[in-house]
Amino acid sequence: MTVQASNLESEHLPDPTGAPESDIAKIAGKSPTKLAMDRFRRDKLSMISFTVVAVYVLIGISAPFLVKFGVLDPTGFNKELVDPSTGGLPIGSYGGASWDHPFGVEPGTGRDVLSRLLYGVTFSLTIAISATIIAIVIGTVLGIISGFTGGWVDSIIGRAIDLTLSFPQTLMLLALSSMGVATVAKFMPGGESDNLPNGAYVVIVLGLFGWPGIARIIRGQVLSVREREFVDAAVLIGASRRRIYFKEILPNLWAPLLVTFTLTMPAYISAEAALSFLGVGIIPPTPTLGNILRSSINYSIGDFMFFFTPAFLIMVIVVSFNLLGDGIRDALDPKAAR
Amino acid sequence: MSDQQLPMVGGMPGDDPTSRGGERLGAASQFVETERPHSAAQAHFDAEPILEVRDLRMYFPVRSAGIIRRTVGNVQAVDGVSFQVPKGGSLGLVGESGCGKSTTGRLITRLYEPTGGSIEFDGRDISKTSSRGLKPLRREIQMIFQDPYTSLNPRHTVGAIVGAPLLIHGILPKDKVLPRVQELLEIVGLNPEHYNRYPHEFSGGQRQRIGIARALTLQPKLLVADEPVSALDVSIQAQVINLLQEVQREFDIAFLFIAHDLAVVRHFCPEVAVMYLGKIVEIADRDSLYDRPNHPYTQALLSAVPDVRQAAVGGRRERIRLEGDVPSPINPPSGCRFRTRCSLAQEICARVEPPLLQIGKRHKVACHFAGELGHHPERPVTASLLGVDDTGTPDPGASPSIEVGNDPGYADTWFDLQRKTMAGA
Min CA distance, A245 vs chain B (Å)? Predict the structure, then answer.
């Protein structure tokens, strides 16, 4: 019954469907991932939100280069474009919009709003992505260990989740911000007033307080996956614990992980904006969507254009990410009711 | 060849490639070895045992709710089970749901650590081996799972699933794995070109074949088949059973075959053990067990199997109906565990646990009133052997005349139920 492996190339067993020789190359199966992507592509709303998110990411990546090559100028003052007699409001309608400054200029300083917004997307997304990744990595590792090991390990991680969730993180973030930033600054280049420690502080706090929800989701998924017999089969073929965690269980978790990622991102983008409003995080002149919005609050009546644009950009990215998350969930789990 | 009456007997029909009959049969037999018809598996009674299980026990603790989780009881899933599996042979383990047969299988593959007893595999006790020490053992004992829909990781290709054991144990270098995987797929009757397909693209029977290929990858000496066909429909069951018989013959693998389908077990296993509530109540070679069952539970189980021959004759066999449910394994009945549902039960059954008494050359039964259907004795046959009177109270006058052991194998002498004396071959 055994067959020499070398014969396999030339002598195929006749395929039940009678596929001709030329089709043999296409015999590779569609993975569950590929099937989900096909479903995703058929959903218009998902594709639109995906496009919007992709545009934002593209902006976020390219803005620093555009700034470097002088296309965008987010920090240069244009005092001649603002009118000191009106308290620094831009000269001209729509916030001083012109061909040179399509979205107008900043009141008081005359900095180009479009440049600041595009560059601000870079920082907002960087903060949100870093915090999300920290939260997901911690949440996933602890969730898998908790769900698979069970027993007292599970209890301890469960209590840690409860404790973290019950902690008033926003208050701590505010109350300890100066001390926290100073602590972070010790491990980083730059002083306390620099933006790197400020941003890192926000990322670390958001990440460290964001993992419990993710850990709970992952733990629940692991509990259902580990009861399936392929985990027992992996134990029986002598797989190490690490292989079981990361090769057998983790690939079955990436559907909930992807959804969690796309739903945590918008939460952190708006969290960054809210924290900027409260005075924590990256401070001007380095722009983020949050601190631009904060500085525009005072001009919500006098210069509506300046107030509207950052708020609109934040709204669009948050809504798009949420729709994208929903679309991914529908694509990955077609049986779930909408 | 057209005038040949039994084309399946005289070797491969395709021996004569020019005959039309040969072509037809050759096409039908492309996956299935037809040199030997798929008759019932034959016994290997004289072979050395590869697996010897002695007094195996598995208690799952039941803990109270709350912070201090005291153990308030034990689920006695397996309680003192002993048996042998000969090299290249197969032992069937039957019983209703929850009787501990799957737990027994998982103990032998060491997915669970037993509470007590020993599992001697190939001469060494593996019941207490640490999880690190088990790794070499994993090459020797493999398992086929019941549900082909959950036993294959949906995120891995078939090639990855079947090839994983080779990589984990470092048996073959990476570039040699694929040819071996394709060879294995061919052995189990799958298209070797399908190695990069995913499990969801296969039917239940094909998935079970993939599971079998994975189990064969390490060339084990013992396969624990935990209800390997009960999730498949009947026509596919036959194919998979035939495949298992082929691999058993080809690679000389011993099987512990766990099932609740008595007909499948009869076909596959020359020796069968019947379990009830964590204990073996009757163990015997196929003919003794199916033709002359001595335990009332075995008799009830067998009477529930539809009989085609009986249907042809007309009329109905008497069916033994068991009243009530299986008692809880947390608090099993005293004495004989079957007494709550047994029509023969008397006082002694509640007081004294019946020993697994050898009553034939290869036949053991655990019942005080062991006997063929309709010929159960009036008085407990075990009373004199155990040194008790007929109600089960210890009899100071009598002395126990047999060692009430729980040995896995068979002795040369046994207790003859007719003559009520010890007999020998």
Answer: 13
Residue A20 pLDDT exceeds 50? no
pLDDT band at B127 (very low <50, low <70, confident <90, very high): confident
Report whether the peptide linkage leading into residue A285 is cis, meaning its omega lies within 30 degrees of zero.
Answer: yes
Tokens of B189: 């009757």
Cα B50 to its chain centre, rounded Å, is 15
Q: Is the pLDDT of residue A206 over 90?
A: no
B77 C-beta neighbours (distance < 10 Å), count: 23
d(C-alpha B133, C-alpha B373), whole Å: 48
- Which residue among B168, B180, B200 sits closest to A238, beta carbon to beta carbon? B168
Domain span at residue A194 reads: 42-76+111-332
Per-residue pLDDT for B44 more than 80? no
Residue B288 lies in a domain: no
Phi first, then psi, for residue B22 (nearest 5°) are -60, -40
Q: Do A3 and B153 touch (CB under 8 A)?
A: no
Tell me which of B198, B210, B243 to substitute to probe the interface with A (most A C-beta atoms closer than 10 Å): B198
- Residue B307, number of CB atoms within 10 A of its CB: 12
> H helices within B84-222, ranges in order?
101-108, 134-138, 158-168, 174-187, 204-217
Q: Domain of residue B24: give its range.
A: 1-37
- The CATH number given to whatever domain includes residue A228 is 1.10.3720.10
- Write out chain B residues lying below 8 Å of A239, CB-based: 164, 168
Closest CA in chain B for residue A229 = B151
Chain B residues whose beta carbon lies within 8 Å of the beta carbon of residue A236: 109, 111, 138, 141-143
Report how many domains make up chain B. 3
A89: helix, strand or coil: strand
Measured in whole angstroms, the distance separating CA B353 from the mean position of its chain's CA atoms is 24
Predicted complex ipTM: 0.79
Contacts with A5 from chain B: Cβ below 8 Å = 179-180, 182-183
Please list every residue in chain A whose beta carbon sits closer than 8 Å to the beta carbon of residue B214.
Answer: 233, 237
pLDDT over 70 percentage in chain B = 84
Q: CB-based contact (8 Å) between A330 and chain B?
A: no
pLDDT digits (tens, 9 = 90+) for B81-101: 999 998 888 999 998 888 888
Statement: residue B328 has pLDDT above 70: yes
Residue B77 and residue B181 in one domain: yes
CB contact (8 A) between residue B198 and residue A228: no
Q: Do B182 and A239 touch (CB under 8 A)?
A: no
